[in-house]
C-alpha cells in the first residue's frame, strides 16, 4: 500500500472542520489551566497505555486505518515514532509559546514534514515523559496572557501563545488516539 508523502495534509473537509469549528470552540471555552489539565490527562493515559508494552511492541510499525486529524503517511508509525513526533512537534510548540509570550514572532515557517519521526528510538518513553515535564514547568512559570503576536499553523490559522497551548493538548489527544489504534492492531495481530 502506497501512502501519501509527509506534509500532504488532511482531507479538506476535515481540515476545514478543525479550522472553522473545532479551533473557535476551544478558544471560547478553554483557559490556560484547562488546557494544561487536559494535556496532563492525555499524557497520563499514554503512560498507562505504554506501561506494559514490550520494546518490540513499542517499536513495531503497523499500518492502521486513518484516524481523525492524522496525515496519511503517519498511519505506518510505531508507538515509539508517535512519541518521537510528539516530542519534536511539542518542542516547536513550546519554543513558539515562549517566543510569542515575549511578543517575538519565530521567523522560521512551521512545516509538517519537518516534525516527522526518524529514529524509532528504544529510549523514547523516558524522553517523552521528561519532555512533557519540561513543558508543564514552562507553562507554570509563564506569565499567563494572550499575546498579540501570532504564528500560523501550516494547516489552520494564526495562533497566539494561548492558542498554541490549546493546540498542544489537541495534538497530544489526537496522537494518543493513534497510539490506542496501534495497540488495538498489535493485539489483533497476536490473536491471528
Automatic annotation (TrEMBL):
Matches recorded under InterPro entries: DinB/YfiT-like (IPR034660)
Name of the protein in its database record: DinB family protein
Amino acid at each position: 500500500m502506497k501512502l501519501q508523502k509527509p506534509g500532504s495534509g488532511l482531507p479538506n473537509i476535515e481540515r476545514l472542520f478543525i479550522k472553522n469549528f473545532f479551533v473557535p470552540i476551544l478558544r471560547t471555552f478553554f483557559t490556560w489551566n484547562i488546557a494544561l489539565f487536559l494535556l496532563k490527562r492525555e499524557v497520563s493515559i499514554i503512560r498507562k497505555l505504554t506501561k506494559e508494552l514490550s520494546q518490540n511492541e513499542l517499536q513495531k510499525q503497523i499500518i492502521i486505518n486513518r484516524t481523525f486529524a492524522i496525515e496519511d503517511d503517519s498511519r505506518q508509525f510505531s508507538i515509539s515514532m508517535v512519541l518521537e513526533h510528539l516530542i519534536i512537534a511539542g518542542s516547536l510548540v513550546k519554543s513558539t509559546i515562549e517566543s510569542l509570550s515575549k511578543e517575538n514572532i519565530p521567523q522560521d515557517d512551521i512545516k509538517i514534514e519537518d516534525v516527522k519521526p526518524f529514529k524509532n528510538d528504544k529510549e523514547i518513553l523516558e524522553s517523552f515523559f521528561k519532555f512533557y515535564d519540561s513543558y508543564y514547568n514552562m507553562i507554570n512559570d509563564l506569565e499567563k496572557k494572550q499575546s498579540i503576536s501570532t504564528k500560523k499553523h501550516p494547516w489552520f490559522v494564526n495562533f497566539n501563545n494561548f492558542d498554541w497551548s490549546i493546540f498542544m493538548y489537541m495534538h497530544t489527544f489526537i496522537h494518543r488516539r493513534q497510539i490506542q489504534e496501534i495497540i488495538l492492531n498489535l493485539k489483533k495481530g497476536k490473536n491471528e
